[in-house]
Amino acid sequence: MKKEDITSVLSAVNDEYIIEAADFKKEKTKNTSIRDLFVKAPLAATVVILLLVGAIAYTAASRTNWSSSITFDDGSTEQIVESAFFKAIPDTAPKNKEYANMLPMSHEEIEAFLGFDILHYTNAENATVNYDTSLNKDGSIARVDLWWPRIVTDGTENGKSINQSVYMLNIGAEEGYVLAFEEGIDAMGHKILLDKIQIDKLDTEALCYTAGDDPDRISVTFVYDNIMYNFTGQGYTLDEIISVINELE
Amino acid sequence: MNDSKIIDLFFERSEQAITELSEKYFEICHRIAFNILGNEADAQECVNDAFLGIWNSIPPENPESLSAYVFKIVRNVSLKKNRSNTALKRNSRYDTALDEIEGCLPSGFSVEAEINAEVLSAEINAFLASIGRDNRIIFIKRYWFGEEISAIAEDLNITKHNVTVKLSRTRKALKKHLIEKGFDI
Predict the structure, then answer these.
(1) Which H helix or E strand runs over A143?
(2) Of A25, A218, B27, B128, which has the fewest Cβ atoms less than 10 A away?
(3) CA-to-CA distance for A192 and A209, rounded, in angstroms?
(4) Which of B42, B67, B85 is the last residue of a domain?
């Protein structure tokens, strides 16, 4: 895409987002004045920081499992999983830095180097899985994300599709990555809970929800074998998405 | 002075309108122009041209949001100037930001097909509505205002690395969103 075209497309960004971004510094300035209070009371700030560091270090050291939940528009929170374990991702698994592009691979390749199974839809229309890692400060893998777009489509270009995302935490993942899971890996906002469905075949419960501003977009999220799966359908019914999940192997 | 009062001054054809507009918005307008052009003299010239354009357009225009209206005109004038500068091989740092985002927008896509541009813009707006506020602000600051990573980090009181990672994740999420919507990337 030509740069002129990119700038032209971006020119149509909603006014409210432009104003929001332009005004943001002012809001932060107010926050800075709160921080100034700490500067005036260095002893109190030091004590607070030490307590926080201690608490985080203690929590990180004691982590053997993780949980995850989703907060919905009405303020309610539903747990996806109460307690799951970290996966043992081999050190030899490929790494890509967070600001690099995802690595396109096949499902078989990924299972081969991970050394465990990833649920997949055998009739997937697209063979390319996008592989992505997040790294700890020491360069080891903290988190692996897989994104398998358009596993089901209606064969047209109209955007109707079901897409699969996979998320897993490695043993030794730093606290920030664990917290991101706990707060919910799905960054899309305005979620409305549709249903909680028991997937008998996988012996797990799935949360089914829709985007408040796009009712045609339905997501189903669940955890199986300590791996989080998310199936998002655009233009497909919840029943159609569940029937794909029931055929996973 | 609030924006509606400034617009009233424009409608009264009072030159005080430009004084008030400049007092309130010159700094950010200059920053937008400088981010795109990377050149002090060009940025100053573009802001002046933009303010003249606003004087000539209000009335009859009566913008709902004066700030967004002003920022858009400054940006458009600056982009136009940047294009002529680029033809003279004077690349700006804004080109770096555009290089970053190029990979998550449709390839072989041209806004010449106006309907395509409208659909793509609508999808980008839908995506921006769906992501968290901080990520949206960072995205707009980088790709609309052309802010440097270090300036965004300072505004949000986070590290440059954190800004880079957040932008990277947002670009990936945008790419996913557009592919899911049927765009060929």
Answers:
(1) strand A141-153
(2) B27
(3) 5
(4) B85
d(CA A17, CA B135): 11
Other C-beta atoms within 10 Å of A196: how many? 12
- In this structure, the answer to whether residues B56 and B7 fall within a common structural domain is yes
Contact A29/B at CB under 8 A:
no
Question: Which residues, including other chains, have CB under 8 Å from residue B151's CB and lie 6 or more apart?
Answer: B141
Q: Are residues B173 and B99 in the same domain?
A: yes
Residues of the domain holding B25: 3-85
User: Sign of the C-alpha dihedral, residues A158, A6, A187, A163?
Assistant: positive
Whether A161 has its CB under 8 Å from any CB of chain B: the answer is yes
Sequence-distant (≥ 6) Cβ neighbours of residue A53 within 8 angstroms: none
What is the number of domains present in chain B? Answer: 2
Identify all chain B residues contacting A101, using CB atoms and an 8 Å cutoff: 103
The residue in chain A having the minimum alpha-carbon distance to the alpha carbon of residue B171 is A99
Apex A156 CA angle, A152 and A157, nearest 5: 100
CATH of the domain at B98: 1.10.10.10
Per-residue confidence in pLDDT tens, chain B, 185 aa: 889 999 999 999 898 999 999 999 999 999 999 988 888 888 999 999 999 999 989 888 899 899 999 999 999 899 888 877 765 555 566 777 887 888 778 766 555 555 577 788 888 999 998 888 889 999 999 999 988 888 899 888 888 888 888 888 888 888 888 888 878 77
R_g (Cα) of chain A, nearest Å: 21
Same domain, B13 and B71: yes
The gap between the terminal CA atoms of chain A, to the nearest Å, is 39
Residue A214: Cβ-neighbour burial (10 angstroms; 0-12, 13-18, 19+): middle
